[in-house]
Amino acid sequence: MKRILALCCFLATTVASHAAEKLNVVFIIADDLGWGELGCYGQEKIPTPNLDKLAKQGSRFTEHYSGAPVCAPSRCVLMTGKHLGHAEIRGNMQAKKLLPQYEEGQYPISEKARTIAQVFREAGYATGAMGKWGLGPVGSTGDPNTKGFDLFFGYNCQSVAHSYYPDHLWRNAEKVIINQKPIPGHAKQPEGEVKLEEWIGETYAPKLMIAEAEKFIADSAKKPFFLYLAFIEPHVSMHPPKESVEKFPKEWDQEPYRGENGYVPHPRPHAGYAAMISDLDSYVGRVMDSLDKAGVAEHTLIVFTSDNGTTHGRSADSKFHVGGADAKFFNSTADLRGFKGSVYEGGIRVPMIARLPGKIPAGVVNDSPGYFADWFPTLCDAVGLTKPEGLDGESLWPAIIGGKTVAHTKPMVWVFPEYMGQIAVRIGDKKAVRQGLKTKKPGGWEVYDIAADRSEKNDIAVSSAEVIQQAEEVLKKEVSGNAIFPMEVPAVAGK
After folding, report:
1. What is the pTM of this model?
2. Helices (DSSP H) in 242-388: which residue ranges?
């Protein structure tokens, strides 16, 4: 009996030791967070102490790019490791447009699409996702449970996520009603006093999602886990709690936002927008605290980034951008050109911070280029999993743990059929761009030297014939057809 007990103790210790050897991963993406909207990236008006702390404890990257200029395709690139030339999802299409059996959700990734979450789950990791999904309705081939997550809690549909007080969230396949009187995500109030209280509901969805994340960390601490947190801040509508808004100066706001550029009105739009970023920062702090309490912080890789740049403008008659955001007031893109929906730097260059105590150098600013297609191979390398064949990205792990700038050996590709059709190819420090590809008068090639001109003010296409030729050759090799999100790409059509 003693031998049996000793053997059981040995096996239990071995299992626990094996679990401890496996690195945990917490991957956090903000929604529409601009490159200049964190303190550690130069933001002067909105305090972000937790993210600044994360940057001090880890490394901050200055040339990291999202997978796309908008939500769903960016998430597709992240999850599948396929850039926009090969990604199944290249735009924000509602599923019901082609699949009327679904009432909500975006067009789904296919059954054959393989995600990083599936690889983690197959390796024995507990897998959880909280926040916004956007890659397929519940019950579809893109259902988060089908695509590798043991637990999903949050918004399945991006359109539902326009409200922070929605009717429901999803816990796996269960629709969880959280507001009997939901607040709409879109409304206008051309006249009269705009009252904050009229746009606040009973249950604030983000509070439920961060609490679920904390519980997942506590419940999973004894085994390796992969946690994907797709927070919805600071995507409009602006619905932050009153106490969050009141942290910011009243003199910031001399006029209300009335919903003229979409989403809902807000009496204090500058304070409201800052409150969303401040709340996002607090969620990151709670995640860090949860890892500390669970005793796994030293063995958990945290990555923080954003799905695309800050919200763009709409009407020249309003000083506000879509939803009441004011990128000029907050210097949201710093000196970068463009906003969400654009393949210029302001639309796709995003914050990225990575922390792993004892492995990733602390307090380092790293200029190594990279983008969302790189995360699949990077995370595989970080935790010691075999990378699937056919990934478009390259591992950033040597650059992340090395603490020095490492060149990106593969060209980075964006093929974006929305917002009139756009493409961009970055080769080394040169970036080639074309706009208006789905209009009657497509734009010609533009070329920028990103190292010397990150603001993309000086188009050097006239003297960059070789770069343009290289970009076209890349597109010929790296763009596949897509019947759901079609766009004729220069140099590819008819190949």
Report:
1. 0.94
2. 242-245, 269-294, 327-330, 345-348, 375-383
